[in-house]
Structure formats: structure tokens, C-alpha cells
Amino acid sequence: MRVISGAARGRTLHPPAGNRIRPTADRVKEAVFSSLASRFGSFEGLTILDLFSGSGSLGIEALSRGSKSAVFVDSHPDSIRLSRENLKLTGFEKAATLIMMDAVKGLQHLSNIGMTFDIVLVDPPYADKELVNSVIRLLGELNLTSLDGVLVFETDNRSELQPPDKFQLSSRKVYGDTAIWMFYRID
Predict the structure, then answer these.
(1) What is the 3-state secondary structure (H, E, C) of the chain?
(2) 19-51, pLDDT tens digit by residue?
């Protein structure tokens, strides 16, 4: 598990212990960030939400590529600790906010304080379809993205997702057992 590009390129991140966290494979991460770079041109100044942050590798990749800030939300203390360690390792701790809260409450909290994001990275537990549907519903209801915001979901390749309100499916790509969904805001 490493940072692929940008200021922290090549930096090896602390891996998660055990199998509770499923890190995004480097080739999948590279494909996601290549697609996002095509959409935005540059990550400079973008704001990022890393939901179900786990090790923090997705948000850290965005920060390494020049994003202005990233919010990391996870309900597990070990994930928050690991994200904090990886942020310190890469030198991005000042650009990051860590929130230990479940995803649904985290989204509601961020909405209540008026936060908006250019990119929302969502890597939920594959097996919890109900949670995924709740997150999709909330992302459609709450104004958490900029007008040209992008939602990126990582699921197993058998999952079917419907676009949240105000979003359309831009692409769905399969990498082995993993599917990456990109939704663009349309309102």
C-alpha cells in the first residue's frame, strides 16, 4: 500500500492489521485518480471527503496530488489511529480533519456545519447493502458536494447501485472482484 503520485509519491503507508480493513488495490486507486484527473484537470484546491476511510490511503492520495483539504470519516478507533499515523508519515496532517463517527451520522454532521466537497470517496463494507443504500440516499438529499462534484463508490463487482438524487452515473468499471462507480452531479 503506497502513495502513487504527487508530493508523497512512492511513500509506503502503514498497512491495516488483520482483515477488518480492505485496502484499495494500487491499480484500482491509480485508475480512480486517473479518471478524476481527467475530470478536474488538477487536484489543486479541491476538497475531499474520504468516507469509511480505513487506512486513509484514498484521501492521502488526493492530498499528495494537491488537494486543499480532506476529511476522513470512520467509525472505528483503529481506523482513525491508522489514518492519523499515515497522515503524519506523509506530512499531510495539517490539511486533514479526522472524524470518528459512523458514516450516516458523519454525513449529517458535515451537512449541519455547512461543509461541501469536490470529491466524495466512499469505500463501505461490501456486505452491508443497507448501509450503502443509506449513504447513497443521504448523498442525494444533503448538499455535500460542489456543483461539479463527483461521488466515487468502491463495491464488490456484483453490487448494483442507483445514482443518488441530483447525480448521474458517469462510469462503472470492474477490476477483478471490485467495481468502481463514478457519479457526477447534474443539478
Answers:
(1) CECCCCCCCCCECCCCCCCCCCCCCHHHHHHHHHHHHHHHCCCCCCEEEEECCCCCHHHHHHHHCCCCEEEEEECCHHHHHHHHHHHHHHCCHHHEEEEECCHHHHHHHHHHCCCCEEEEEECCCCCCHHHHHHHHHHHHHCCCEEEEEEEEEEEECCCCCCCCCCEEEEEEEEECCEEEEEEEECC
(2) 656 677 788 999 999 999 999 999 999 999 999
